Amino acid sequence: MATDYDAPRKTDEDQSEDSLEELKARRHEKNSGKVDEDETEAAESFELPGADLSHEELAVQVVPRQNDEFTCSSCFLVHHRSQLASDKKGVLVCRDCDG
Ligand SMILES: [Zn+2]
Predict the structure, then answer these.
(1) What is the CA(46)–ligand 1 centre distance, in A?
(2) Whole-prediction pTM value?
(3) Cα–Cα distance, 18 to 38 (Å, whole number)
(4) CB 87 within 8 Å of CB 96
């Protein structure tokens, strides 16, 4: 009796069981996810040098701009910005040349 009642239902349940089984499978993956933890740990230890790289990128981004350097239009030497004496119409003159 129960079998008869179950039989037509099972087809119906089969479809929902599909997703259920998927969920179960996913849960099982997570539960047996000691491998996952290892992967996370590996990713974490991989992230550390990655963070360092981003730091380097930041530093590298600043350097090419040479924002704190200028070329004196009088002696044509590259000076630090702190040596900039005048900046008239884009004509940069260092303190040495600034009379
Ligand atoms: Zn100069």
Answers:
(1) 48
(2) 0.34
(3) 29
(4) no
